[in-house]
Amino acid sequence: MFVCLCHGVSDKTIRKLVVEEGITDIRGLKKCTALGSQCGKCVRPAKEIINEFAKDLFKQAS
């Protein structure tokens, strides 16, 4: 599913960046993608994806 329609950033891309780059917040995501730089409607859903995925990832690790 596309989270950022303006720049074509998908939920899969966000999850991949969380795992591979250790992204844990929107600031880190913006450094790797153009997410949130145009209309900004994607920032809240992207933040939710990062938080949920990171929480699940850390549960598996412990």
In brief:
This protein has helices spanning 11-21, 26-32, 43-61; strands spanning 2-4, 9-10.
3D architecture notes:
This protein is mostly helical and 62 residues long. It is built from three helices and two strands; from the N terminus they run E-E-H-H-H. It has a two-stranded antiparallel sheet. Strand 1 (2-4) and strand 2 form a beta hairpin. The chain starts with a strand and ends with a helix. The model has no long low-confidence stretch (mean pLDDT 91).
Helix percentage = 55-70%
Low-pLDDT ranges: none
Evaluate the radius of gyration.
11 Å
What is the average per-residue confidence, as pLDDT, rounded to a whole number? 91
Relative strand content = 5-15%
N/C terminus separation = 29 Å
Q: What's the quaternary structure here?
A: single chain
Along the chain, the helix and strand elements come as EEHHH
Major β-sheet, in short?
A: 2 strands, antiparallel
State the strand order across the main sheet.
1-2
Could you say which structural class the secondary elements and strand pairing correspond to? mainly alpha
Number of strands: 2
> How many distinct helices?
3
What would you call the shape?
Answer: elongated
Keywords: 2Fe-2S, Electron transport, Iron, Iron-sulfur, Metal-binding, Transport
Family: Belongs to the Bfd family.
Pfam families: Fer2_BFD
Domain BFD-like [2Fe-2S]-binding: 3-52
